[in-house]
Amino acid sequence: FDIALVDQRMPKISGVEVLDRLRAKHPAIVRLVLSAHSDIDSILQSVNRGEVYRYVLKPVSAADLRAVVRQAVERAILARQRDRLYAQTMRTGTVSLNYFANDAALPLLEDDTLRLNSLIKDSTSGEGLVYATIVDRAGVIKAHTDTSRIGSTAPALPAGEESRTEGATTSVTYRGPGGEHLMNLARPVTYSGKTLGEANVG
Predict the structure, then answer these.
(1) DSSP secondary structure of 9-34
(2) Which site among 8, 88, 107, 132 is 20 to 30 Å from 202 CA-CA?
(3) What's this model's pTM, rounded to 2 decimal places?
(4) In sequence order, what are the beta bridge partners of 30?
(5) Quick one: DSSP state of residue 56?
């Protein structure tokens, strides 16, 4: 199920406690709580902590309750679509990232900037990639889709909205300078068990 709607006042346990336990096991479920005015402080604390999506004051009309549930369903659908898009982006980006990380080791070890940039140029024609970069251990850009950045220190990513790690790949979603959503995928470039640098695609 995608939505949980509970009453705050129940025998032996509060609605917020039920939703908190539910969140621990099923964090994607959109949680709603029905309440009277006397319970509002504890519910607002839960809303502010992100444990409850919305509270509904009783008494509530059937039409108002349907509207709230419809909004919760829309939120659940959007979250599911976001997760699917994330998974698709990870699959697509990981293919290029793995190519760079696997094929960049020897040119990075030999400091062969020309070969590293050929790797980037050959692979960034793929749909959806905004940039690709390979940096050495010191954080110096050895290859980049914007060749004017080669030789400079790689800038830190803006504060991320979300960060995940799957195996050797780390993804960070953030907003670009124009406000657009971007995802940076990073993976170490290794050779004989030693880290030589990092490959990034976004």
Answers:
(1) B-SSSBHHHHHHHHHHH-TTSEEEEE
(2) 107
(3) 0.61
(4) 3
(5) E
Q: What is the DSSP string of 57-113?
A: ESS--HHHHHHHHHHHHHHHHHHHHHHHHHHHHHHHHHHHHHHHHHHSHHHHHTT-H
Which H or E run includes 7? strand 3-7
Q: Which two structure tokens, joined as six digits, stand for 35?
A: 């309440």
Tokens of 145: 């889709």
pLDDT in tens, the chain (202 residues): 789 998 888 888 888 888 888 888 988 899 998 888 666 776 777 666 657 788 888 899 999 999 999 999 999 999 888 888 877 877 777 888 888 888 999 999 999 999 999 988 866 665 567 888 999 999 999 999 899 999 999 998 877 778 888 889 998 988 777 777 788 899 999 999 999 999 998 8
Local structure of residue 130 (DSSP, 8 states): -
Tokens standing for residue 193? 């068990």
Bridge-partner residues for 197, per DSSP? 136, 189
Q: Which two tokens stand for residue 76?
A: 């659940």
Query: What is the torsional sign of CA 18, 74, 58, 45?
Result: positive
The answer to whether 71 touches 78, Cβ cutoff 8 Å, is no
Closest among 151, 124, 196, 169 to 143, alpha carbons compared = 151
- The residue type found at 164 is R
